Amino acid sequence: MQRGDFGFFFPFRVRYSEVDGQGVVFNAHYLTYYDTSITEFFRRLGYDYVAAVNTTGVDFHTVKSLVEYKAPIRFDQEIEVGVRVGRIGNSSLSFDLAIFGKGDDRLYAIGEIVWVYTDQTTHATVRVPEELRAMIAEAEGQLTA
């Protein structure tokens, strides 16, 4: 993956509490960076995730999390997480993610998060709403850093 593959980025500065004894970001924090960036991606779309859950009783559940580490990220380093929707299935969304240095092309990690849309009462899968599909389709070509 390259920086140009993404139209949306969310910035972070690595905090001391996020590094381990080796002085690099502890592996679990990559998923926090990914999750936060996906939340901000939805905010940028204008999709009110909380309202949708409260109105429909349907929510996304994470069914897959993948992190591939390319280079160490250290304390106080500024990074940007790129987010894009790689695939929309019948009841799932697959996010492609990548962590770059702030304003540069150095790749630190890549990832994939897969969510499945599920009725919270029956736990049955539900089709991803057309409204959300349309918002993603429209925005993917228009989102900028």
UniProtKB/TrEMBL annotation:
GO MF terms held by the record: hydrolase activity
Keyword Hydrolase in annotation: yes
UniProt keyword Hydrolase, yes or no: yes
SUPFAM superfamilies found in the cross-reference section: Thioesterase/thiol ester dehydrase-isomerase
Domain of life: Bacteria
Keywords linked to the UniProt accession: Hydrolase
InterPro entries (alphabetical): 4-hydroxybenzoyl-CoA_TE (IPR050563), HotDog_dom_sf (IPR029069), YbgC/YbaW (IPR006684)
NCBIfam families: YbgC/FadM family acyl-CoA thioesterase (TIGR00051)
Similarity comment text for this entry: Belongs to the 4-hydroxybenzoyl-CoA thioesterase family.
Protein name: Acyl-CoA thioester hydrolase
Organism: Rhodopseudomonas thermotolerans
